[in-house]
Amino acid sequence: MNNTTCQRVSFDFTSRFLPPVFILVFIVGLVANGWGLKSLLHNWKKLGDINVFVLNVGLTDILYLLTLPFLMVYYFKDSTWIFGDAFCKITRFCFNLNLYGSIGFLTCISVYRYLAIVHPMRVRGRLTVIHPVAISVMVWLLVSVQSLPDMFYTKTFRNKPGKCYDTTHKKYVEDYLKYSFGWTLTGFCLPFLITLGCYGHLIFILCRKNTTDKVLKKRCLRLLLILIVLFSVCYIPYHVLRNLNLWSRVLLEQKKCREWSNGVYIAHQISRGLVCLNSALNPLVYLHGNEDITAQLTQLLQRARQMFRRPPPTDSGSVPMNQITDEV
To answer: What's the whole-model pTM score?
Structure first.
């Protein structure tokens, strides 16, 4: 299909799909991160050096969650941004800090787990608490440097008042595609390969050694499962579909229409909803080290059930007899 008139893209899908997702992530994310950070502080010594990275994952989540109410207002007002150009860029910047900061710190956790289990003698005494702090500062700096160019692209446009683009206006989309592709390679693909390599070798070593502590093996497998869920559900679809959608927009600007353009746009919006779920799923990383998590969840559910089942206090002397008879 190559016509001068292109099929209309369903832009209204975004305003219907994203607000409910943002509400869900905001509520679940705040509760989960609050509970997770409390658990982290309680098990600070048990987690070891990775607790610094885990704490930073929580900070990136909270930073992004605080911007969600403004995005809810934006989409509830039919994609009309009322908070100004500067705050639009800050909101998008916080999203990028959360996304690539989470990926960066999860990669650090994977490397530290790998070194502690596969090469314990080599790193014993060499890694102190100063090292994860210094590495965390470097991760924040690298993620900020990678995300900073995004703020120089147009996020609002005077000919279309009220818009707050998550990428940029169609006038600059071809240049943004090149930036996005490089950003994906350095901010996502490289950390993903490092994480994959660390856990691939780690699981191989754990399965080979029968003497390995079963509790340690269980923790590593649990963390690996969490990372698989995060990458396969949140990170991989978003990066693939973001670049594919940008390419589709470039083709549309060149009047090279494709039948799949509308489908790619809708899939990209779904991936935007999935990627923000990482703020609600990341707390699983610092809850996985808590061996009593199942017991705590069961206890909380029992308390909630008792609260809902508990009858309200009544004064039996003031209830009329006919009302009691009717209720029986």
So the answer is: 0.84
Q: Comparing C-alpha atoms, which of 156, 146, 135 is closest to residue 100?
A: 146
Distances (CA, A) of 230 to 80, 124, 128, 130: 31, 30, 28, 28
Six token digits for residue 239? 């990066």
DSSP annotation of 7 reads: P
Largest interatomic CA distance in the chain: 83
Contacts of 283 (CB under 8 A, 6+ apart): 32, 33, 35, 36, 58, 61
- Residues linked to residue 157 through DSSP beta bridges, in sequence order: 160
CATH superfamily of 12-293: Rhodopsin 7-helix transmembrane proteins (1.20.1070.10)
Instruction: Give the residue, 68 or 12, on which the prediction is more confident.
Output: 68
User: Among residues 196, 8, 7, which one has the least CA distance to residue 103?
Assistant: 196
DSSP code for 70: H
Torsion angle defined by CA atoms of residues 14, 20, 24 and 29, in that order, rounded to the nearest 10 degrees: 30
- Quick one: pLDDT at residue 307? 66
DSSP conformation class of 326:
H
Which segment of 135-139, 169-173, 235-239, 291-295 scores lowest on mean pLDDT?
A: 291-295
87 residue type, one letter = F
- What is the DSSP code string of 86-148? HHHHHHHHHHHHHHHHHHHHHHHHHHHHHHHHHSHHHHTTT--THHHHHHHHHHHHHHHHHHG
Interval 99-126: pLDDT, tens: 999 999 999 998 988 888 888 777 777 7
**Sign of the dihedral defined by the CA atoms of residues 150, 151, 155, 158, in that order:** negative
